[in-house]
Write a structure and sequence with these properties.
Two copies of one chain form a homodimer.
Chain A lengths: L5 H21 L8 H13 L4 H8 L3 H13 L3 E5 L7 E5 L1 H10 L16 H20 L2
Antiparallel strand pairs in A: 1-2
Chain A binds a DNA duplex (23 and 23 nucleotides) through α1 and α4.
DNA sequence: TATTGTTATACTCTATAACTATA
DNA sequence: TATAGTTATAGAGTATAACAATA
């Protein structure tokens, strides 16, 4: 039963996270920034200042998409754009104190052990994902 | 460490699923239907024919959004719209054989134990979600 | 009058293609 | 020429508001 059909898990997980994302985006009207903005700002908070191109790669979006996100965060005073010291083509995006504290409000300090050590998925991790799909579904279904 | 800060887990999970969704939507260019369409079609496959209003509720979208999804699935020949037998206001959306087999191709038969028995989250389930965030992140980061 | 579904309209997120400036 | 970032444009997904048909 464990490592039987990984393909169906992928499909179930896809559907589950799509619904959860829908849910999360909808329920953030009380927050000052969108999930897209928070995700980018969190990466800057965690990994430090970087260029738009690198941030786009980290967030798995194309550069023009990140240009927009950065512009919106800049308008909100959450990041600053400064020239690159040696390369005139590049710029450096840095979170402002307001941006950092906003991430700290939304995220917590528990960040360390979540960002590294990857590896090939084993049976145990697959089982964890299976359970997680159920849990995600239960969360979505319960929050009527 | 277990039930310490559920809030930070929620934030981490949000960011993780947003990135995974981005990833999944982008990588489905080989599939004939989008994740949004697959999710609705899967629900019809699992729960049977239903009205657009009920399907919208199941999928956690508003009725006008579901109208669009159903129209697109209908154009592809994956669902059919038939009049409600007694209530002239309602219609019944039914997956066609092509729609059912498409879901079967994408999903597998392992569906039973994933749809029911919900409950309040316990320490173990929270830990599962924490691990799942790492696994999701590792998947996203590895599929360079 | 209340309900179901649809149409009209708009906003967010994301992409590709084309452009500008610098290396 | 190649690279970094931006602008222009388009499409998918979703929402709210207004409408039509039926109960």
């Amino acid at each position: 039963m464990i490592s039987a059909d990984v393909q169906s898990l992928a499909s179930d997980l896809s559907v589950a996270v799509v619904r959860l994302t829908r849910h999360l985006r909808g329920r953030r009207s009380d927050s000052p920034i969108s999930l897209t903005q928070l995700s980018a700002l969190s990466t800057l908070r965690r990994e430090g200042s970087m260029t738009p191109g690198l941030l786009a790669a980290r967030e798995r979006v194309q550069p023009p998409s990140m240009t927009r996100v950065i512009a919106s965060l800049s308008e909100l005073g959450l990041v600053e754009r400064t020239p690159h010291p040696t390369d005139g083509r590049q710029i450096i995006v840095t979170p402002t104190p307001a941006g950092r504290s906003l991430v700290d409000d939304e995220n917590s300090a528990r960040e360390a052990w979540m960002t590294d050590q990857l590896g090939i998925l084993g049976d145990h991790q697959i089982q964890v994902l299976r359970d997680a799909v159920d849990i995600i579904n239960s969360i979505v279904n319960e929050t009527e």
